[in-house]
Design brief:
alpha+beta; Immunoglobulin-like; 60s Ribosomal Protein L30, Chain: A; globular
Length: about 260
């Protein structure tokens, strides 16, 4: 039987989840994320035929439904001693071998709304660590899930109703002790590709400006990028070709990522 190293589970919110004896499958010690909404616990670890499988429970401990997004491309573990990183395995089609999968964007991503008091199980397959490895860090870096940062059609001004969530996010970023924030803007498919590219950049820049002027993050290094209509998260039209206003509204958004 292959020895399984001790594993430490960390998330982008800066909290460490410690597994003291994964091989013995003991209860794992967990701490809630910075905002107190999501509690993560590593509950299953297997090594078979050179593949390491990690399963994590993501529990919503709040009284509200919480949206959680994790791009599988950003999930990795690292050997604690030599710091070498190991990313999720891919299949023949270039998709990460992980789930559950919300969509195939960027190789696949986890993006689900977890009801209050409920949990969702996330699993990922990696190349197994070398036999000499004694302990690893398991990281779940995530795009922080604020779907409420949406925009009206052809607009890029920040909605007043989005500001409480943005302020909460700003305080969470401060606690990370990180210096870089990536803000990505998106649009629906109405209008020309060139116009939508510029509009999406304006949306990303508007969130950056809000973080600096109102969120108190003037010392942060922001990177903004507009993707136009290229990365929808919901169809802009229905299967019969008719317009899908709900889908378009979701696509007029920004996404915030902490690398």
């Amino acid at each position: 039987m292959k020895r399984i190293p001790t594993i430490f589970l960390a998330c982008v919110m800066g909290v460490l989840f410690v597994a003291t004896s994964v091989l013995a499958q003991e209860a794992l010690q967990t701490q809630p994320s910075t905002d107190g909404d999501i509690e993560a616990s590593l509950f299953e670890v297997k090594v078979r035929k050179g593949v390491l499988t990690l399963k994590t429970k993501l529990k919503n401990t709040s009284s509200n439904r919480v949206s959680v997004r994790i791009d599988f491309r950003d999930v990795y573990y690292a050997d604690i001693e030599d710091k070498k990183k190991y990313f999720a395995l891919k299949d023949a089609g270039g998709q990460f071998i992980a789930g559950p999968k919300y969509d195939d964007g960027d190789g696949g991503r986890f993006w689900y709304k977890i009801p209050a008091g409920k949990m969702k199980i996330l699993w990922v397959k990696f190349p197994a660590p070398p036999d000499k490895t004694a302990a690893i860090d398991f990281f779940l870096p995530t795009i922080l899930p604020f779907e409420e940062v949406l925009f009206d059609f052809d607009k890029w001004d920040v909605k007043k109703e989005a500001e409480p969530d943005l302020l909460k996010l700003a305080r969470g970023i401060e606690k990370l002790d990180k210096k870089r924030v990536i803000i990505e803007g998106h649009t629906d498919s109405k209008g020309s590709e060139d116009y939508n590219m510029k509009l999406s950049q304006r949306r990303a820049d508007a969130i950056k400006a809000w973080f600096i002027s109102t969120g108190g993050l003037e010392n942060m290094d922001f990177e903004t990028k507009g993707f136009g209509e290229a990365k929808p998260i919901d169809p802009n039209t229905r299967a019969d070709g008719s317009d899908n206003p709900e889908g378009r509204a979701k696509n007029r958004r920004v996404e915030i990522r902490i690398p």
